[in-house]
Amino acid sequence: MATSTSLRIPWRAIANSASKHSTSFVRTPCTASPFLPSRRHASSDSFDINSSSQAERQQFVDSSIGAEGSKSEPPPQDPLTPSDIRLPRAVQAAYLRPLRRTPTYGVPTCDLQLRSYSIRNLEFFADFALRAAYYLGLPAHGPVPLPRIVERWTVPRGSFIHKKSQENFERRTVRRLIQIRDGEAQAQELWLAFLRKHAYYGVGMKANVWEFSGIEVGKDMDAQMEKMRGELETTLGDFAFKRNGETGKKAMEVINRENSRAATGGNAPMIKRVP
Q1: 20 to 30 Å CA-CA from 59: which of 68, 77, 215, 247?
Q2: In what order do the strands lie in the sheet with 140-156?
Q3: CA distance 233 to 81
Q4: What is the per-residue DSSP string for 75-111?
Q5: What is the pLDDT of residues 150-190, one digit of tens each?
Q6: Sequence-distant contacts of 160-164: CB under 8 A, at least 24 apart
Q7: At residue 173, what are phi and psi to the nearest 5 degrees?
Q8: How far is it, in rounded angstroms, from Cα 106 to Cα 185?
Q9: Of the ranges 28-32, 87-91, 235-239, the best mean pLDDT one
């Protein structure tokens, strides 16, 4: 916002200087702009001194400003260029390589494979995944280029006159591998969920996760199975007939239902033979 500044010159100083020099003063209002280089004599009061030199004019203006007790303006400076302006740290980080954390043991815990038909989208999302892994405290390695998958198809151009003419199509799939080493299970799940939420268009993801347990992992799995047995009994009972179950006793009743006969293509009901 432009601000206007005014320079006040005491009447006594004007009268004293007018008696020494033949000076004519012209008072014209002026508005100073902060975007233009400022000078000491560019103020709201402009004057014309005929018989005085440039040094005397400057001395007169300095003495007038000092009499009022105001501070002198700083000397003019060169305007700033775009190269002199520093960008914020977050913006600078986008132009630099993503930061990485050093693993302690180097044991792989997660392999994330990215696939896409566009190399530009793939490289962009791989960079995004590495930055997210750093801020979640995961040591990430990659992206490692994997061999391309090339698929080709040959189809005829038409079914009548162009039947002998064929056309070839090709599709290339580029892949990148990002490996997490010495990562915590909770942090890995959070990282994969974050990437799934902010998935980039045209980029597919496939993750292989390894979890480490104690030596008695078999006993722990048996204990978990016993806890889940009550919930699984009702679900597993629908897959097969039990030897002494209620469904086996009502087998003929289920088969002779109208919807069952319509599904199997039978019309006449089946009769249970008595031995």
Answers
A1: 77
A2: 140-156, 166-181, 108-116, 203-209
A3: 75
A4: PP-PPP-GGGSPPPHHHHHHTSPPP----SS--EEEE
A5: 999 998 888 787 778 889 999 999 999 999 999 999 999 99
A6: none
A7: -110, 120
A8: 15
A9: 87-91
